[in-house]
Specification:
Helix content: 55-70%
Distance between the termini: 39 Å
Order of helices and strands: HHHHHHHHHH
Strand content: under 5%
Number of strands: 0
């Protein structure tokens, strides 16, 4: 059993408090729908403690992403010059680069559906906030356990080599585009600034994003070691499936 790295421990902490936040928002929204009182956002704005804390936490997370940090994933830290370890090769190979536009298109269309429903007043602001909170939990699940973008589209070896790692906050806060609140649009604007900074760095310094040219992205230099936890989880899942299959066979024989 491998010890978890400080970076992965921080990921688990983020998963914990984002999950708690989602449950609080969900409970609040359900109570609002039952009572049919004032809108959930109006109620939160009258008692803004959760709102202020949530805004501050996510804003600080994004602001810190603009600077190098040893407590962040190599996936988002590869953009910085100090993490560029020359391999000696000048051949930039990023095999998943062509999938980025497909992922962007799918995400825009997917969230556009919610946006249209919101404009038709079928969904309210509360649902859009809940959607953002759910995305924030799914973001950590993608990092820690299973990422559909990696598996089905990008085909990258791990998060460290992910071409769209710093898209996460922009994707997370996409539904806020339809919520006409200053605090909502400020988070969205900050997330878009993070994405734009990432893309500019990619086009100016693609060598930092390729394992072929940047040794920082190679397994021996990884400070995250999440792949070991994912392999352990995959092994455990296989053992559970095998146990279940064996148990079913025994029960059939006994019957």
């Amino acid at each position: 059993m491998h010890r978890r790295s400080p970076v992965s421990i921080l990921h688990y902490l983020r998963l914990a408090y984002r999950s708690v936040l989602f449950l609080l928002l969900l409970i609040g929204y359900i109570l609002y729908r039952i009572s049919e009182g004032e809108a959930i956002l109006s109620r939160m704005e009258r008692m803004p403690v959760i709102l202020v804390i949530t805004w501050t936490v996510f804003a600080m997370e994004m602001i810190l992403r603009f600077f190098p940090s040893r407590f962040e994933s190599p996936g988002c830290q590869k953009q910085f010059a100090r993490n560029y370890i020359k391999s000696g090769s000048t051949e930039v190979i990023i095999p998943d680069n062509n999938a980025t536009m497909l992922v962007a298109l799918i995400w825009i269309v997917f969230n556009g559906i919610f946006g249209v429903l919101h404009m038709l007043h079928i969904l309210d602001d509360g649902i859009m906030i809940l959607l953002c909170s759910a995305y924030s939990v799914c973001d950590m699940i993608c990092i820690l356990f299973f990422c559909p973008f990696q598996t089905w589209f990008m085909k990258n070896k791990c998060c460290s080599a992910c071409r769209i790692y710093n898209w996460d906050y922009a994707m997370m806060f996409t539904p806020l585009f339809f919520v006409r609140r200053v605090y909502a649009w400020s988070l969205l604007a900050l997330s878009v600034a993070l994405l734009v900074r990432w893309e500019i760095t990619f086009f100016r310094h693609p060598e930092r994003f390729s394992e072929k040219t940047n040794e920082y992205l190679r397994c021996q230099n990884c400070t995250e070691k999440l792949c070991t936890h994912k392999k352990q989880l995959h092994t455990l899942w296989q053992q559970i499936e095998q146990y279940t299959s064996d148990r079913v066979r025994r029960l059939k024989k006994e019957s």
